[in-house]
Each structure stands twice: as structure tokens, then as C-alpha cells.
Design brief:
alpha/beta, Rossmann fold, two-stranded antiparallel ribbon, 10 helices, globular
Length: 251
């Protein structure tokens, strides 16, 4: 294995090990307890991420082994459900536009028991901060998954002057470095981004922790079975019917 590949493997392992230490110390327990409480009251986990952080939303909502009462909020719904022209999806300007947050929020129906989980490596883009602020204003708790190293090194872009980490009730550090990439290749270039890897790991830790906590409470965790195994669709459809349009979309 070449040096950059070996170095990247070390960078990934070190960050996952740090997350494991946090789990053992109970660092994710507050977030898990918030999710469990929401689900026990009939709530849905509303998850939002833009750019590559959409992968976090997909890791939480609508996948095999994941929790069924989950819903991914996606920017493209301002076109698919709203009145925006498809051209707004070109480039990365929409995620930086704070005015889109309220418009996006109004496209969905939320229950008072819903909890929001918002992922953003930088934690400063307008749509991310705007949606977190709107959710908080409506009384929903917010869990943030972000890079504390990166977000604390850059200036807020939202007119509120706030970062996602300064809005959320609970902040989970994805442990990505400033700029996300971990391996210096010279000439001012780096590669080996880690935020998607650590965020996916965090998503699975939260899912497992929630499922186990529900099991410990004597409940059957509402988990998706792969649609590609016999009986998967039947199992999933029966549980999805409890939530209807509240989990429609990527799920």
C-alpha cells in the first residue's frame, strides 16, 4: 500500500476510534434519548443535509437496517413540491441561500414530537442555518452533526451571525479537519476527505443506540428490512403506513 493510502487508512481509523471512545463515555446518549423520546411520542426524525451531507440524510432515512419513522428534507423539493424552476438546482448556490429555508420548511407537515437532525461539515451555509433556526422557532429540538474544527475556523454566512453548532440543542462533532481532506499531496492540494465516512458511522451509531434503547424498553424497534429479501416490502409497507406522507420522499 502506498504511503498516502496507508496514511488515509490511519486517519479514518483514528477518527472512528475517537467516536467509539465517545460512545463508551456516553457522549451520544443525549442524542439517542432525544430520538427515542420523539419516537415514543409518535414523532419522526427529520433529517437535512446539503451537498455531500445529503449522504448523511440517506444514511438515516429510508435504508435497510434504518429506522422507519425518519424523513429526509431535500433542497430539490422546492422544485418537485414547490414552484421554483429547475434551474435553481444548478451549481451550489441554493444551499447558501438563507431565503430558501422557510420556503422549504413550509413544503412539509411536521408533528410537535418531531426531532430535527441537521448535518453540515461547515455548519455555516444559509439553508442549513436557516432551517435549523426555523425548526427551533417552532419548538423542535435540533441535533447537529458538524465539524467543530472547520465551523469554528470560518465566519458565519447567515444573517443571524450564527453557526449550526450555536443553534442546535445537541452537537455531534464529525471530527473532520478544516477543509475535510486529510492527506497533503503537495502544491497546496489535499485529498482523502473523511466527513462522509464519519457522518455515516455516526448515523449508524445513533440508529443502533435508538433501536437498542427501544428494545430495552420492551418495544420492537421499527426498522427497515431490505426490500431485496423475501418479505421485506411487506414488513416495511406495514410500518410505513403508520406515518403516511410524513415519511414520504427519499424513504
Amino acid at each position: 500500500m502506498s504511503a498516502p493510502l496507508a496514511d488515509f487508512a490511519t486517519e479514518v481509523r483514528d477518527r472512528l476510534d475517537a467516536l467509539d471512545q465517545e460512545v463508551r463515555a456516553g457522549g451520544l446518549d443525549p442524542a439517542i434519548e432525544l430520538i427515542v423520546s420523539s419516537m415514543q411520542r409518535g414523532g419522526v426524525v427529520q433529517v437535512f443535509g446539503t451537498g455531500h451531507s445529503q449522504a448523511f440524510a440517506m444514511e438515516v432515512a429510508g435504508r435497510a437496517g434504518g429506522l422507519i419513522p425518519t424523513h429526509a428534507i431535500v433542497l430539490r423539493d422546492v422544485v418537485l413540491r414547490g414552484n421554483r424552476d429547475v434551474s435553481v438546482l444548478e451549481g451550489g448556490t441554493l444551499e447558501r441561500d438563507e431565503s430558501v429555508a422557510d420556503e422549504l420548511y413550509e413544503l412539509y407537515s411536521f408533528d410537535p414530537a418531531d426531532v430535527f437532525m441537521v448535518a453540515s461539515n461547515s455548519g455555516v451555509n444559509g439553508s442549513i442555518v436557516g432551517l435549523a433556526l426555523r425548526a427551533k422557532a417552532d419548538g423542535h429540538p435540533v441535533i447537529a452533526v458538524t465539524s467543530l474544527e472547520h465551523t469554528n475556523a470560518v465566519s458565519p454566512k447567515h444573517s443571524s451571525g450564527k453557526r449550526l453548532s450555536e443553534i442546535a440543542d445537541i452537537v455531534i462533532d464529525n471530527r473532520a479537519p478544516y477543509g475535510d481532506a486529510t492527506i497533503d499531496l503537495g502544491d497546496g492540494l489535499s485529498a482523502g476527505a473523511v466527513s462522509s465516512i464519519t457522518a455515516a458511522y455516526i448515523a449508524q451509531l445513533l440508529t443502533l443506540g435508538t433501536a437498542q434503547r427501544l428494545r430495552d424498553a420492551g418495544e420492537i424497534p421499527p426498522l427497515y428490512i431490505s426490500a431485496n429479501v423475501p418479505g421485506g416490502d411487506e414488513h416495511n409497507d406495514a410500518l410505513k403506513a403508520r406515518y403516511g406522507e410524513r415519511i414520504a420522499g427519499l424513504t
